[in-house]
Amino acid sequence: MRDALRPKVVILGLDGVDWPLIQRLTAEGITPRLGALARDSQSGPMLSTLPEISPVAWTTFFTGRPPGCHGIYGFTDFAEGGYDLRFNSSSQVRTPFLWDWVGLGGRRSVVLNVPLTYPAQALSGLMVSGFVSVDYDRAAYPGWVAGYLKETGYRLEADFDLVHEDREAFLEELDGALAGREKLLEKFWPEEWDLFVLVVTDTDRLQHFFRREFEETGPITDYFLNFFSRVDALVGRVHDLSAALADQTDEGVLLILLSDHGFTGVKEEFHLNRWLAAHGYLNQVGPEALALALDPTRLYINRPPRFVQGRVKPAETREITDRLKMELSAEPAVAETMDGEEIFAGPAQDSAPDLVVRPTPGYEFKAKFSSGPIYTPSLLQGTHTRENAFFMIQDFGSERNSIRIQEIHDLGRFVFSRLGL
Length: 421
Hints:
The protein is built from 13 helices and 19 strands.
């Protein structure tokens, strides 16, 4: 018999599902399985990362390390030493993932649809990578898994372009994407594994495009409720499979449910680089700028060695960051501007932003390098919040102990410690 302190672990992620939404849908009878888990497990709201976006939050959870260690601060980053943009991928993560450690211990993992795991890396087990996967062959390990994805018509991601062209076609895309996640569960659960991970990202997409309409009881309401009823059925299926597995094994089963951030309706968009340009910090992207921004809320002072041609001298940096914080505080969209060196301590601090804006709830931040108004209406209806991500912990075969979870990093560290890592 294996060490009883090292159970099999099942992790189900529901991207962007917030604690108040779970409470509301449970009260309305839409999500009884989520409601039962919330009642019977250790559960509650928790804080996401800064910035509160999926690549940062999921990477923090699945590495058990904060951004200052794993080095992911957003979907994009500046190329080393210059101003060109690159998309982050699994190859930019500086610390091992949970399944890497599990593999070092001679155990196997099934990892399905986790954001920022593309391209899929070799592991002890199998993987279907998540957003932003674009190619079946690079999104799967080992190679035979790609064949299964192609044969079944698995959607790596719903087609976002459809949402404003053909609403019904986009909703069919979302239905198909969720069906694909359901099929992944049934296909790969029977595999041999010690860690099983599935993330449902389609809950985030639905809310980005329809959250406000749902809150206002608009035409999307029935679809929204039916979609979350399907998600709840998936939650129930994962719970029941985990409970049955716990009955069959002496080693125990640890079931974790979580989201990576909260959600709320959008009021307006706030364009950070346009604000920098209007206030004299950014005339063009290049050596003459004082500061530049990246999505969604990251500010970088144009100084060496990050930018080889940067104009800002070390002695000038503090004065510029202090002035930015003061001037941004006057904006309705800005709740707070925080120093990167204080919140991103660690070996990857060299690539961390100098400042991070914490938005006022309801403002969607953009950092495109384009001209136009600073505040604009948004094509999105929902936006992320750092507050009200959720967690649920059900430890089958183990006494229920009180665990202090304030942030998603805490939950990641708990899983690592429970596995003796």
